Amino acid sequence: MAGRSVLLVMTTLPDAAVAATIARALVERRLAACVSVQPPCLSVYRWRGAVEQAQEVPLLIKTTADRYPALEATLRDMHPYEVPEIVALDTAQGLPAYIDWVFSETIDEDERNKQDDHG
């Protein structure tokens, strides 16, 4: 898969409504092929010297390394947290047909138009 790096990006959000809004925006903008909105979970973390806990909604975002910078910028812009969790894991393996699908669904519109023009 050299040159075809697929990332699994994780973030957490304060509620299902915000999670669904961000998930939809990422897919609509072709920054992600798929975003899986997970059930709420309890997060325990240290913030500004105190141990905190909150219910959060995790997102699992499937994208490409090429689209990651724009995805991160969009997440940072839309995310309600001061310091959002944005962690990207490079996938070492994957079903080739799924990897192809991720790439086909995350091609930005300018690149898609170039491909259509050149056949």
Protein topology:
Blueprint (H helix, E strand, L loop, with lengths): L5 E8 L2 H13 L5 E4 L3 E7 L2 E15 L3 H11 L8 E4 L5 H10 L3 H9 L2
Antiparallel strand pairs: 1-4, 1-5, 2-4, 3-4
In short:
Helices cover 36% and strands 32% of the residues. The protein is an alpha+beta fold and 119 residues long.
Oligomer state equals single chain
Query: What is the CATH topology classification name?
Result: Alpha-Beta Plaits
Distance between the termini: 24 Å
The amount of beta strand, in percent, is 25-35%
Please describe what this structure looks like.
The structure is a single chain. By secondary structure, the chain is α+β, with helices and mostly antiparallel strands. The chain has one domain: 2-Layer Sandwich (Alpha-Beta Plaits). 36% of the residues lie in helices and 32% in strands. The protein has four helices and five strands, in the order βαβββαβαα. Strands 1, 2, 3, 4 and 5 form a five-stranded antiparallel beta sheet that branches. Strand 3 and strand 4 form a beta hairpin. The longest helix has 13 residues. The mean pLDDT is 93.
